[in-house]
Write a structure and sequence with these properties.
The complex is a heterodimer of chains A (388) and B (571). By secondary structure, chain A is of the alpha/beta class. Chain A is built from 16 helices and nine strands. The two termini of chain A are 37 Å apart. In chain B, the strands form six sheets. Chain B has a three-stranded antiparallel sheet. In chain B, a hairpin with a 2-residue loop joins strand 12 and strand 13. Classes of the chains: A alpha/beta (388), B alpha+beta (571).
């Protein structure tokens, strides 16, 4: 979205006209739409609908606020994979405010944001990374002399859609870990009158951000989500169920300590703390950095970074039995620990235990979206993720 | 002419939230204030946690320099527990950190800094054929063709004509401080675009060894990525070939694009070799251990301290001489504001005493930032690429002497030109060339060890907390892309009792102390520093960006007992 393309999208063009000016033929465009249909979990039948919708959209304004954060989520999006037609996807938007990338600073930067908000009132997409500190009257994050909260509330007012990118924006992430010295909260604790999509992860995979924007442009609404606000097209499956090392788990083949013979055979990392059985994330499917690899593929256990409050609920990271008390699982840590101890001895039993517990969690349906059927965003109904 | 009060907030194209205020008169800056305006308190969050988890928490201090806190944290915990990582793990960490230098510095130059020197709009009037001639005269880079530059020009032209300028909206285009001819502007814009694609490729080295970027995974005691040439899920010949390819492409881009571009652009801004120096003292803790972690004679980039710009004498670096002060910082000390404390005794009670938001000016406030003020032997220090290159140059480091001599000769300036805004830009590019070349050495050593039968990547002996002493403390040092970094950890009963970080941007963005000494940003902004048009503070951005600010890194909180004390008074 930061790239001036060779044939920029003129303000008065539809995407259809824009593509034509770029010499993109119909077949290439449909292939792209098919790819996106797959990423979104919609199946090939949705391709014509995506194509029709994309042809009619106009280039929307995007404002990206960075609040109390580390910029890792912005860096992640800078790494987004780009097939040649992917360039177009990034060019789908006009990135009118980005702290990391914009040329202007100070009043000129703030002026650019205000102009974009005024000219696109009610129509712009708001991306937010970072949390909002609530202690000390918000003075723990001040930008342009105004608090993070004030920036967020002003930008949210005219936004057509709000996308929380990364763990901080939705749960506060690391600065909200106990004892949360600054009172950091996610943006949904501040903005309560609009649906907010949660692109979970520390950081999230860039393609999920892009996919969410395309979903919004295509269907005119945000994607369906699970109870945590995460799009089902990306977070509908547990890592454990998609893991390339699952066969080792099922066969009872575990790494006991890093760099042992089992580690050198790429066996299951459950015993050294892997949180894959408790984590819903697209990591094993999309993988990272042009599908080069992913954490478990590089021999390190999953730390569960797409789950709520993972800095408290998934730590110690290398302990097989995390403190799961605040996960909302109706089973004590002792019982859970006993089940896993059995699992360590035999893969089948462990599998059964893990699956049993997972079924006690809030049920998460796999994406079965019918693009032709009217549906609504599930929002955060029944949210009980145990903020402390 | 009246004194003008200037506020630049937010400073964009950096990591985090930084506010610069200045007083300017007759087109020159008289005084400047750097305010860090974000506070997260990560260190106190780590108290009571497993020290083996610390790398992941501290890594989230910053997602730009995404490996530096993780490695420094591993080194601190390993130092405390007496863990020696296997040579393979050290080489893999060098490769990861080396690629961090390369990718970080290139992104900084093209995407965070270049727009201060390069007028994008001016590129529209460039002759692509002339750009191609210039490009060929300085580099053998294969896309130096007229065709390519014509395509880029057409891109930019249509983008501007499209009316939605996105990130280029309200830029300072046409400002008289822009000096590049249109052809060189076009060259830089073309490489801005190429670098975006390039960085996405070469950073995959992190993904191979650490599973993802940003925030790849590390491990106290070594690395989790096991080596087995005969398995599909491990580091094998296919993975190593990918790594080697990235090293080659990284080196080629640095040598054929980044380095010649910096020298070419610098040639048009030689006046900036006399602007924005400021600092008298420079500190490097050294980086890229090529032997045991405590064998400082085997660091690729040496450590040392230069006082008073005296290049004839490099003092040994001694972490025990570091103290932190709070004369102008929103904190209080139990012993009063006048004392300085070593990080092992560190004490940080946050106490906001500034005005309520919205702010007008902070420059008249006695305290104006969440950044503390570190001192080495009582003196403020500049850290970062310039400090490292000066220490290496003065230490007689052959590779550094060669690359700096090449730059100074080509620009026809003397070594004193390094003490400047332009010197920082050149030093950063020079060390990137050195590190890009050295990556081959570390890669070859790793392959040779594997060939010799050593595939060990992890030291198991002290992984289990039952093997640890009841009490231990350790220091992890690392010279990060932005400068010298230190982590100090105290472990009691298997848990973190205290954790302190003193990071590069704390040194450079430090506020003034009552003795009148100022941190590197503030010193530089007062050093023969112009500001032609206060409403278009392009010159301020040049000098501040030359440090590559990383604000989230710089701010921390923990008192001597490891207890957070939040006492806020809003006036």
């Amino acid at each position: 979205m930061y790239l001036p393309s060779s044939h920029p999208w003129m303000a008065d063009e539809t995407l259809s006209e824009h593509l034509e000016s770029r010499g993109v033929d119909r077949r290439t465009f449909l292939e792209f739409c098919g790819t996106f249909a797959t990423i979104l979990g919609l199946g090939e039948l949705a391709t014509p609908r995506i194509a029709l919708a994309l042809q009619q959209v106009r280039r929307p304004s995007v404002i990206w606020l960075q609040l109390q954060e580390c910029t890792g989520c912005v860096e992640s999006v800078l790494r987004s994979s780009e097939p040649s037609i992917g360039d177009l996807v990034l060019d789908l938007v006009s990135l009118d405010y980005s702290h990391t990338l914009m040329a202007a600073s100070g009043t000129a930067a703030e002026g650019a944001m205000r102009t974009a908000m005024r000219d696109n009132m009610g129509k712009y997409i708001l991306l937010v990374t970072g949390s909002v500190p609530t202690k000390a009257d918000g003075m723990y994050t001040v930008i342009g002399g105004r608090t993070a909260r004030e920036h967020l509330e002003e930008a949210a007012e005219g936004a057509a859609a709000i996308i929380a990118v990364g763990a901080c924006a939705h749960w506060g992430s690391v600065q909200a870990a106990k004892p949360n010295p600054t009172g950091a909260v996610g943006i949904r604790d501040i903005i309560k009158d609009k649906p907010i999509v949660n692109i979970a992860g520390c950081p999230p995979i860039a393609d999920v951000v892009t996919g969410t924007i395309v979903h919004y442009l295509t269907f005119g609404r945000l994607p369906d989500t699970d109870a945590e606000g995460r799009p089902l097209f990306a977070y509908g499956a547990r890592i454990h169920d998609q893991c390339s090392r699952r066969a080792n788990f099922d066969a009872g083949q575990f790494v006991e300590v890093f760099d042992d013979e089992a580690a050198r055979k790429g066996w299951c990392l459950y015993q050294v703390g892997c949180k894959g059985p408790q984590t819903f994330s697209p990591c094993p499917i999309l993988q990272w950095n042009d599908s080069t690899n992913w954490p478990i593929g590089a021999g390190h256990p999953c730390i569960g970074c797409t789950e709520p409050n993972f800095w408290d609920t998934m730590t110690p990271f290398y302990q097989r039995l995390p403190d799961i008390g605040v996960l909302g699982i109706e089973r004590s840590a002792d019982v859970w620990g006993a089940a896993l101890a059995v699992g360590a001895l035999g893969g089948i039993a462990a599998h059964a235990a893990a699956t049993g517990v997972s079924q006690m969690r809030k049920r998460r349906e796999l994406p079965v979206l019918d693009p032709s059927a009217p549906t609504s965003t599930t929002g955060h109904e029944g949210d009980d993720h145990g903020r402390h | 002419m009246a004194v003008t009060k200037v506020v630049v907030d937010p400073i964009t194209r950096i990591e985090g939230h930084l506010r610069i205020e200045a007083k300017a008169e007759n087109g020159m800056i008289q005084d400047a204030w750097a305010s860090s305006t974000q506070f997260r308190g990560l260190e106190v969050i780590m108290e009571g946690r497993d020290p083996r988890d610390a790398w992941a928490f501290t890594q989230r201090i910053c997602g730009v320099c995404t490996v530096v806190h993780a490695v420094a944290s591993c080194r601190a915990v390993e130092d405390a527990l007496g863990i020696r990582v296997p040579p393979n793990a050290n080489l893999i960490r060098n490769l990861i950190h080396g690629m961090q230098y390369i990718q970080d510095h290139v992104i900084h130059f093209y995407h965070l800094h270049a727009l201060d020197w390069v007028d994008v709009v001016s590129a529209l009037s460039a002759d692509p054929a002339a750009t191609s001639r210039i490009a060929r005269s300085i580099s053998a880079w294969p896309t130096n063709s007229e065709t390519w530059f014509a395509e880029v020009k057409a891109r930019v032209g249509k983008f501007v004509a499209g009316g939605q300028l996105g990130i280029f909206t309200n830029g300072y285009w046409g400002h008289p401080a822009y000096k590049l001819p249109p052809e060189v502007n076009l060259l830089a814009v073309a490489h801005y675009l190429e670098a975006l694609d390039w960085q996405r490729d070469v950073i995959r080295l992190h993904t191979i060894f650490g599973g993802k970027n940003p925030h790849p995974n590390f491990l106290v005691g070594g690395m989790a990525s096991a080596i087995n040439l005969n398995d599909t899920a491990t580091i094998n010949a296919v993975r190593l070939a990918d790594v080697q390819g990235m090293i080659r492409r990284a080196q080629r881009f640095v040598e054929q694009v980044y380095w010649p571009d910096v020298l070419a652009i610098a040639g048009f801004y030689k006046d900036w070799a006399a602007i924005g120096g400021g600092s008298d003292n420079y500190m490097a803790c050294g980086e890229f251990p090529e032997g045991e972690i405590d064998d400082f004679s085997k660091l690729y980039l040496p450590r040392g301290v230069i006082m008073g710009r005296n290049l004839d004498r490099v003092l040994p670096f001694d972490e025990s001489l570091i103290t932190e002060h709070i004369g102008s910082s929103w904190y209080e000390y139990s012993g009063g504001d006048g004392v300085g404390l070593h990080p092992y005794e560190g004490e940080t009670r946050v106490k906001y005493t500034g005005p309520p938001a919205p702010w007008t000016y902070l420059q008249d406030e006695p305290k104006y930032t969440y950044m503390k003020s570190p001192r080495y032997d009582g003196k403020p220090m500049e850290v970062g690429p310039l400090a490292r290159m000066l220490v290496a140059y003065a230490s007689g480091h052959a590779d550094t002497r060669e690359i700096l001599t090449e730059a100074l000769t080509q620009l026809q300036v003397g070594p004193s030109a390094l003490y400047s805004t332009l010197g920082r830009v050149a030093a950063r590019a020079a060390e990137t060339v050195l590190v890009a070349r050295r990556m081959n050495t570390w890669y070859d050593q790793l392959v040779a060890r594997i060939k010799g039968g050593d595939t060990t990547t992890f030291s198991k002996e002290k992984w289990d907390p039952s093997t640890w002493p009841a009490s231990a403390r350790g220091y992890g040092w690392l010279d990060a892309p932005r400068g010298a970094l230190g982590h100090w950890v105290t472990i009691e009963g298997g848990k973190i009792a205290r954790y302190q970080c003193v990071v590069p941007s704390t040194w450079n963005c430090a506020p003034r102390e009552p003795d009148g000494s100022t941190g590197a940003y503030e010193s530089a902004l007062k050093a023969n520093h112009p500001l032609l048009i206060p409403a278009q503070p392009l010159e301020i951005l040049r000098t501040v960006h030359s440090f590559d600010p990383c604000m989230a890194c710089g701010v921390h909180v923990l008192d001597a007992q490891g207890n957070l004390v939040v006492e806020v008074k809003v006036q």
